[in-house]
Amino acid sequence: MSVDFNQLTPPKAVKELDFETIYNERKEALIALWPSNKQNQIRKTLERESEPLTKLLQENAYRELILRSDLNAQYRAVLLAYAEKEDLDNKVADYGIQRLIISPEDLTTTPPTPAVYESDEDLRYRASKAFDALSVAGPTSAYEFHSLSADGRVADAYASSPAPSQALVTILQRDSENGAASPELCQKVYDYVSGEKLRPTADRVTVQTAGIIEYQIQAVLHHNNLPETDPVLEEAIANINAFINSPKRIGQSIYLSAIFKQLHVSGVERVELISPSADVLVTAFEASFCTGVNVTIAEG
């Protein structure tokens, strides 16, 4: 099973980063070092910004802020939900997983084309299914993990059993135009999950591409006498682009409420959503794909 990392509560071990809080805590601790009859005098001294003791206290508080930030980063680096880049590579190595290559390096081009690797988000998603790999590809979750591990181009996988001893694996392709998987990739996944060490003897496996449900987003953002509309429009378009470009998942429908949420930024009075006119509903064997975005802004 996979984990929705966005729903996790931030760990308590991550310290709050607030300079004023740290400064005030250290100031009170410093004042407490003096006898009670001198504490008011020290407190007044620390109210002067030019006082060397004040400068020293500020410098110490800032150093603690940096230390807390470093400790937070070090702690996050060992958590699957927060680790990034090389730290994430080392974390998933605990599960026997390596970052997959989507497209290899091409040294024949000028300049050379660097290799494209699995993103942090996709690697994290696949790693969350790692314990399913402890089984052969019998349970649906195990088929999904092994399908995702078959090739870096596999963006998502959904396994089902339409009949006894039959396994149907539906996949998305990361680098295709709309997410549909090519016959070549389907065959590669089939060969991988059908290996004698993975597939139960009685299973008959079929690998297919997900059906692609295409849609467009067309909307008009209405405002009430805004002096500048460009920043508002840019923010809304950036939001919707991030939304449609997030990792695609099989069976994940596109709801109008989610589109409205992305477009209704500060300064927008109302959103007139022209397309889609209804929720884009997909089945467990389908995925959605946005073919275009057209967002404008108007007064009134």
What does this structure look like?
The protein is 36% helix and 20% strand. With 300 residues, the chain is of the alpha/beta class. The protein folds into three domains: 5-76, no CATH class; 129-209, GMP Synthetase, Chain A, domain 3, CATH 3.30.300; 212-299, no CATH class. The strands form three sheets. A three-stranded mixed sheet has the order 3-4-5, covered by helices on one side. A hairpin with a 5-residue loop joins strand 3 and strand 4. Helix 1 packs across helix 3 and helix 6 (140-150) packs across helix 7. It starts with 18 loop residues before the first helix and ends with a strand.
Task: Please specify the SSE layout and strand pairing.
Elements: H1 19-31, H2 39-45, H3 52-76, H4 85-93, E1 101-103, E2 116-117, H5 120-127, H6 140-150, E3 154-160, E4 166-173, H7 183-193, E5 204-209, E6 211-223, H8 230-244, H9 256-263, E7 270-275, E8 286-299
Parallel strand pairs: 4-5, 6-8
Antiparallel strand pairs: 1-2, 3-4, 6-7
Helix pairs in contact: 1-3, 6-7
Ends apart, CA distance between termini: 48 Å
Low-confidence stretches: none
Output the helix-strand order: HHHHEEHHEEHEEHHEE
How would you characterize the largest beta sheet?
3 strands, mixed
**Biggest β-sheet: strands ordered side by side in the sheet:** 3-4-5
Number of domains: 3
Structural class: alpha/beta
Task: State the total count of DSSP E strands.
Answer: 8
Indicate the mean pLDDT.
87
Radius of gyration: 27 Å
Number of contiguous helices: 9
Form type: extended
Approximate helicity band: 25-40%
Percent strand equals 15-25%
